[in-house]
């Protein structure tokens, strides 16, 4: 009998990669979507999995819809990837960010507790929870949280609620504390995709420059397609736990910019980049870098795609997108 998985955030970046992995493992995949007047299935279609996913209606801000979905599907595994995930927007949309990222997780956990208590649950946590936790930029599972945005704060609530349901009700719940992970499916509002899309336009003569905020913040960047494998592995363990998922390497936003321009053979990147205070955050996290000993030892997980390969992949995909539009 096929295993079943319910994936929220199925139309985002990570959802299609996870669906592809699960489908390859012969899962039946249910994808939770909010019923827009015109939902976009571009990302699942990009990976060729759209027609293999069974979509179900639901909303993390509507507990009754979550109860209905859980009762109907009775999944073996639930992967909660849905979130208001754009950190920059969380200051302007703090209430919505809290309702989706924090209270939505509580509602989903309650639905599982009452109507499918044997379901294994994965919560997409984030390195943004660490914020200013320490000076050297290294974080692991024991590092205290000090979030610097409404987004990070909402994710800390969800993290501890996931732990609490595990400890209070003996449920199989896991937190994956994922550091920054990118792909050609990353939303255009995120700085990494903004860079690769901008570089692609400059290469094709469609633009002259890119407007960015701060080039100094350093992040631990990996490939989303690698990171969904870690999500899956967490729910295959005999005992639940919380894991940092990262590459263990750090690069600045400027490093990302330089790598993107290098990928298209442009050496003088500085004449194409304009610093714009509109894109600076009220409170920035200067340095994030994950310690990955636990995930490597207990999950046997290691990233496959390097930083340079990731940037080249994203630039190449954006060039192909733009060329397709022109024709």
Overall description:
With 327 residues, the protein is α/β, with parallel strands linked by helices. The chain is built from ten helices and 15 strands. The protein has a seven-stranded parallel β-sheet with strand order 3-2-1-4-5-7-12, with helices on both faces. Strands 6-15 form a two-stranded parallel ribbon. A two-stranded parallel sheet has the order 8-11. The longest helix is centred in the N-terminal third of the chain and has 22 residues, at 94-115. It is globular. The termini are far apart. 46% of the residues are buried.
Mean of all residue-level pLDDT scores: 92
By secondary-structure content and strand pairing, the structural class works out as: alpha/beta
Number of self-contained structural domains? 2
Overall shape: globular
- Report Rg: 19 Å
User: What kind of sheet is the major sheet?
Assistant: 7 strands, parallel
Order of helices and strands: EHEHEHEHEEHEEHEEEHEEHEEHH
Strand order of the largest sheet: 3-2-1-4-5-7-12
The counted number of beta strands is 15
Strand content: 15-25%
Q: What is the level 1 CATH name of the largest domain?
A: Alpha Beta
Number of helices: 10
List its salient traits:
327 residues, alpha/beta, Rossmann fold, UDP-galactose 4-epimerase, domain 1, 2 domains, seven-stranded parallel beta sheet, two-stranded parallel ribbon, 10 helices, globular
Structure, briefly:
This protein is an alpha/beta fold. It has 2 domains: 4-181 and 222-245, NAD(P)-binding Rossmann-like Domain (Rossmann fold); 187-220 and 250-287 and 306-326, Alpha-Beta Complex (UDP-galactose 4-epimerase, domain 1).
């Amino acid at each position: 009998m096929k295993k079943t998985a319910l994936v929220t955030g199925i139309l985002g970046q990570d959802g299609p990669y996870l669906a592809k992995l699960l489908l390859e493992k012969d899962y039946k995949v249910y994808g939770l979507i909010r019923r827009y007047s015109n939902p976009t299935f571009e990302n699942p279609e990009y990976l060729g999995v759209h027609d293999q996913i069974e979509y179900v209606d639901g909303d993390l801000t509507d507990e009754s819809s979550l109860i209905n979905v859980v009762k109907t599907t009775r999944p073996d595994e639930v992967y909660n990837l849905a979130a208001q995930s754009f950190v920059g927007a969380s200051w302007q949309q703090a209430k919505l960010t809290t309702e989706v990222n924090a209270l939505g997780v509580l509602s989903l956990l309650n639905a599982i507790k009452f109507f499918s208590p044997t379901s294994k649950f994965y919560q997409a946590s984030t390195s943004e929870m660490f914020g200013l936790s320490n000076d050297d930029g290294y974080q692991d599972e024991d590092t205290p949280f000090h979030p610097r945005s409404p987004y990070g704060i909402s994710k800390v609530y969800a993290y501890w609620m996931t732990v609490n349901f595990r400890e209070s009700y003996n449920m199989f719940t896991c937190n994956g504390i994922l550091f920054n992970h990118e792909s050609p499916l990353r939303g255009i509002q995120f700085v990494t995709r903004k860079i690769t899309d901008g570089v692609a336009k400059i290469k094709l003569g469609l633009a002259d420059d890119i407007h960015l905020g701060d080039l100094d913040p350093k992040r631990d960047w990996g490939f989303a397609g690698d990171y969904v494998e870690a999500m899956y592995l967490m729910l295959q363990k005999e005992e639940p736990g919380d894991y940092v998922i990262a590459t263990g390497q750090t690069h600045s936003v400027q490093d990302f910019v330089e790598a993107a321009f290098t990928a298209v053979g442009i050496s003088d990147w500085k004449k194409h980049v304009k610093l714009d205070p509109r894109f600076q955050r009220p409170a920035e996290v200067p340095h994030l870098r994950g310690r990955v000993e636990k995930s490597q030892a207990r999950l046997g997980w290691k990233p496959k795609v390097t930083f340079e390969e990731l940037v080249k992949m994203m630039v190449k995909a954006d060039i192909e997108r733009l060329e397709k539009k022109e024709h």
